[in-house]
Amino acid sequence: TPLVATVGTLSVYPGAPNVIPGEAILSLDVRHPRDSARRAALQHLLAEGKAIARRRGLRFTWERTQENGAVTCADDLSALLEASVGAIQGSSSRLVSGAGHDAVVMAKLTPVAMLFVRCRGGLSHHPDEFTSAADIAVALRVMLDFLMRLAQRRAS
Question: Which pairs with CB-CB distance under 8 Å and at least 24 residues apart come from 30-36?
Answer without folding.
Answer: 30/3, 30/4, 30/5, 31/3, 31/4, 31/5, 31/6, 31/70, 31/98, 31/100, 32/2, 32/3, 32/4, 32/70, 32/98, 33/2, 33/70, 33/72, 33/96, 33/98, 34/70, 35/69, 35/70
